[in-house]
Amino acid sequence: MSKIRVYELAKELDISSKDLITLLHDEFNVEVKNHMSVIENEDAELIKELLSDKKPEGAGTSEESTETKAEEKDIVEKYEEIYVPQNTIVKGRKNKNKNRHDSRDEESESGTDSEAEAPHGVIEIPGTITVKELAEKLNKPIPEVIKQLIFCGVMAAINQEIDFATAEKVAAKFNFDLVKKSEEENVVGEDLDIEEDTNLEKRPPVVTVMGHVDHGKTSLLDAIRKSRVTETEAGGITQHIGAYTVNINDEKITFLDTPGHEAFTSMRARGAQITDIVILVVAADDGIMPQTEEAISHCKAANVPMIVAVNKIDKPDANPDRVKQELTEFGLLAEDWGGDTIVVPVSAKAKQGIDDLLEMVILTSEMLELKASPSRKAKGTVIEAKLDKGRGPVASLLVQNGTLHVGDSILVGSTYGKIRAMFDDKGKKIKSAGPSIPVEVLGLSEVPSAGDRFNVVRDEKTARAMAESRKEKVKDQQQSGHRVSLEDLYSQIKEGKVKELDLIVKADVQGSVEAMRQSLEKLSTDDVKVRVLHGGVGAITETDVTLASASNAIIIGFNVRPDVNAADIAEKEKVDIKTYRIIYNAIEDVKSAMIGMLEPDYKEVVLGRVEIRQTYKISNVGTIAGCYVLDGKITRNSDIRVIRNGIVILDSKLASLKRFKDDAKEVAAGYECGLSIEKFNDIKEGDIVEAYTMEEIKRDHL
Length: 702
Prior knowledge:
There is one protein chain. The chain is built from 19 helices and 34 strands. It has 702 residues and is of the alpha+beta class. The chain folds into 6 domains: 3-53; 66-180, no CATH class; 201-371, Rossmann fold, CATH 3.40.50; 379-479, Beta Barrel (Elongation Factor Tu (Ef-tu), domain 3), CATH 2.40.30; 489-600, Translation initiation factor IF- 2, domain 3 (Rossmann fold), CATH 3.40.50.10050; 604-696, Translation factors (Elongation Factor Tu (Ef-tu), domain 3). A hairpin with a 2-residue loop joins strand 9 (243-248) and strand 10 (251-256). Helix 6 packs across helix 7 (142-151). It starts with a strand and ends in a 6-residue tail after the last strand.
């Protein structure tokens, strides 16, 4: 996980390192020794968010009239009742009453407060300061300072921080000049050692089981669960929370019961890298299948270590060596063949090899040296969430660092809450949960999304404010969401945003996938490494788009098209899909994009999609297809492509388009039509005819 030094973050936030160290301690229970200490980027982002929520709106001034002054006094008095301790108000009011008579005439003549007569001075303050501290620096009563803040359009309690610009305006009212403290952050020499939390402790590994359908993922999980949980718990699992913890030789392992690599990757797309180890289940009698291949690609993209469980070894036609051979094609060489991939033969049905597999998980986790700090405030990820009729929003959380307690105020994605009750994976009520422990919690304001991050914050008020702020940011990001695309690749490389170009390649045959993979990876330069995350045969699917979204990758299709769901999600997630009929063109486009020479003058616009429902052969005419327009429209003069099982088999033009017996210029979605294709008679039921046109891109030339 990337990290940042305290002084760098303080400089970015425009506050002193000392203030930031205090904030880290008060808000997150994170102890740092000095300004050269390092903190995780995730904590840094949360601090930025916390401070941005506290920043007041821009101060504004207005012409003061007798009426508005009276109103302002009312506001001040109401505000003082709520926010300022009573003894402070009394003290302040005594001072105010003492000077009120003398200053009233001066105020009416000059429009300024009596403080204008105070001696001129220069005060040094940090980038942000609390109202109380500012009052002390100015040597003025707190209510007077709060009153001036209100006149500036800022409502702030006595312990609330205000930024330098606002403090400057208030100080000017009292005829003081403020100067921002410049802290010398860069120190020479011996203090450059990177420090971690001193109280780090070993934590259990978090394991996800993946593999092809019917290869025994569920059976394996059940076998582990029964052998390790039910023997100690009468009645077994009473409640499913998407994860559970098992014990092996006094060591704990947490299993995530996710439905597969789609869930794993969609969580990763949301920035939730929660899995430490993946168990890849491969059937000994079946070998590596398309979904196994996808799971391998997803694990590699996430840089998560894999343990291969060769299941169903009790079957007569089981062939574990064949599985090991197939694994080598994906760069995974078994340990007993001289590689570093752990391969364990198991049988979920016969309960064979389960203990060996769990021991390998423990061994791998020891190599990873997984650690966390139980003493800090908790943070982690939502595994799954739902709305329960009786209990309200219920969320299953995985605590990744710190300890979560009942009564904690938490910020979860763009929702918030206070934990009213907490249950472990067996449905038992608990008071607290440490690192790598899954729990179910009640007390959130809304149902969060799986993959949302959660953090414990100071109080519910802070959590609510930050949740509202996040909602606004999400709206803004959706409007201006930006991902890597071939068109702007060069500019992103130049700005240093892209160091690695990730691609997903789909083609009509395996030979084309390999040719594309090799040619594209050879395009790597010193500035950018080109990496093909996943290559496969067939249509571009929803899974491909999810992986592209999680990895900020571009999808390149050769003689294939995205299916309807994939196209919709790609548009929503702003994933760039490029399709080609000639391999050379795909290679040239990527090459040109990397050196900033890509000039696409035309873009393809899909007009509509038509499904072939029936075919008729007519002598002297050829094959006529009876069709239904699924979406958009088809026009008589549009270019068309015929797609069969997601693979493009023909690019051509229409020979005819009819509605009943009449020629038609165009037919819209929801209507039936008849069509024939120029010089092509091999139309089959279930084929999709996609109508498209090429539009010229107008460029602004300097």
